[in-house]
Amino acid sequence: MQVNAAKWGWFYRSCREILRAFLRLFGSLETRGLENFPVTGSAIIACNHVSYLDPPTVACAVKRRMRYMAKIELFKYRMTTWFLLRWGVFPVKRGEVDLDSIRLAIDILKHGEAFVLFPEGTRSRDGSLGSAGAGIGMLAKRSGALVVPTALIGTEKVLAPDAKHFSRAKRIVVFGKPLSYKDFAKDLPDHEARIKFGEAIMEEIRQLLEANGRPVPAKTEA
Q: What is the 3-state secondary structure (H, E, C) of 78-142?
């Protein structure tokens, strides 16, 4: 279930411009920390996740084409599958170790592409931050890609998790300084290094959120 997304660069650019025009109807988009965003080379853009608008908002914030991972349930309809594959999205099975998706993500990164990832694995409904899954450390280790902690602000106001319509609000994307897995693997066993790396990514995202005016509430128990 793949297409050569590189051949569909024109499709990505066209859709991005359409999205930018559409989302502008519901408020402006500001990008901060662009000096931290890698314009070439492999990179994992690690974001907090609070809205379905997060992936298109990251896409609209920079000109570089990026790849995305999405739950396999979004691929059950032919039309959405056609669109998502050409947009550079590939499916992942949640709640289990999806080796095919992991291999594909590593291959994408080793080919020097940028890959958007939400380390928490699902949307936060209250704005709090969860823990990073172990996968991001493994991807960074196996691919050698830098990880860019990224804060998304305001998308939850434009389209809240349970909202049925859009609202107007400003959206802000803040790119933090890239982190290297190698810096965490120097003196720690592999498993512990992955945990520490995930914690460091989430802490950087937390600091970016709060430094840019978006308080992070304590996580509530389910």
A: HHHHHHHHHHCEEEECCCCCCHHHHHHHHHHHHCCCEEEECCCCCCCCCCCCCCCCCHHHHHHHH
pLDDT digits 0-9 by tens, 55-103: 999 999 999 999 998 889 989 999 999 999 988 999 988 777 788 888 9
Q: Are 119 and 194 in contact (CB under 8 A)?
A: no
Instruction: Tell how many helices (H) and how many strands (E) occur in the chain.
Output: 8, 7
Structure tokens of 214?
Answer: 């978006």
Tokens of 91: 């499916």
Cβ within 8 Å of residue 54, ≥6 positions away = 47, 48, 118, 123, 152, 155
Residues 6+ apart with CB under 8 A from 83: none
Q: Which amino acid does the sequence have at 124?
A: S
pTM of the model: 0.92
Instruction: Check: CB of residue 120 under 8 Å from CB of residue 129.
Output: yes
